[in-house]
Design brief:
Length: about 290
């Protein structure tokens, strides 16, 4: 803690976990290496796992006294986040995912930013944990920054963010109807539209893990796309730009022109399939939510 900054009574780190047996030990080890010197706790919300996640968490509770485990059932990441926030005793709540790796200064950097802003996002480092196929499907940005996918308001990834618990309470928590995409954008857009300032903490680094299997990449991209018309339905009146059909038609033409990539190297095939799945998801979401966002 620097200078005369006021002490924070307690910080809570909430980690949703579903079928996280292969990765969560690495994330818990990373949290155990944090440099933040003041009191903080970890709440892992087990979210309907069918593997050995529960047993692994029990063993970690014996090694990590500040670790608590809650059980949300298989009802989506926002339900898990809300349950963790309700059980959090901290003044500040930080979110990370069970399959990523928080850098040692992550907690300290987010807490420093939260001293002056009610909501913050950190930097996602995408190269350490990902191979060429995953990076081709979701290329890293040139420089760390908040996400700005829609040309509307910036937002952090739910895998690396923090907020005052009071803000979460005033907003009524995360919208649990968002599943498979849009879950983090929706919350932080509502916060900004309600007058809360969002900041970026570049020193709060999380090493972010993408899907590596092509089928999983496609399934995730389709879910992201399905959520976009839902976001447009909920935020068009606040200024979220539309996705003009002519622009979407051009995007489809460019994707179809890349059809030979389907017979090419795995990384190029995965990149094309991810974009096709995103566009297909948008079409399905447009029909479901009766909002054209292609």
């Amino acid at each position: 803690m620097s200078g005369a900054a006021r002490p924070v009574r307690l910080v809570s780190v909430v980690v949703p976990a579903r079928n996280a047996e292969p990765t969560i030990a690495t994330q818990l080890e990373a949290l155990g290496r944090q440099t933040y010197p003041d009191p903080w706790e970890v709440i892992v919300v087990e979210n309907g796992s069918t593997d050995g996640t529960r047993g692994l968490l029990r063993s970690w509770q014996r090694r990590m006294p500040r670790l608590r485990v809650a059980f949300a059932g298989a009802a989506g990441v926002n339900r898990a986040r809300n349950l963790g926030c309700r059980q959090a005793d901290g003044e500040f709540v930080l979110l990370c995912d069970a399959d990523d790796v928080a850098a040692p200064g992550w907690v300290a950097a987010l807490v420093d930013a939260l001293r002056t802003s009610p909501a913050v996002g950190g930097a996602l480092e995408r190269r350490l944990l990902n191979g060429p196929v995953a990076l081709a499907a979701r290329p890293p940005k040139k420089a760390p920054a908040l996400l700005d996918t829609f040309g509307f308001l910036p937002y952090p990834a739910g895998a690396n963010c923090g907020f005052h618990k009071e803000l979460w309470s005033r907003l009524g928590g995360f919208d649990e109807s968002y599943r498979g995409g849009g879950d983090d954008a929706e919350f932080f857009w509502r916060a900004q539209l309600a007058g809360y300032r969002l900041a970026f903490a570049p020193d709060a680094v999380v090493h972010y893990r993408h899907r590596s299997d092509t089928r999983a990449i496609v399934r995730q991209a389709y879910g992201f796309g399905r959520s976009h018309p839902k976001l447009y339905r909920d935020f068009a009146a606040a200024g979220m730009p539309s996705s003009p059909p002519a622009e979407a038609a051009g995007a489809w033409c460019r994707l179809l022109a890349r059809a030979p990539d389907l017979l090419g190297p795995t990384d190029r095939r995965a990149a094309l399939l991810a974009q096709l799945a995103l566009r297909a998801g948008r079409a399905a979401g447009s029909a479901r939510h009766r909002r054209c966002y292609l």
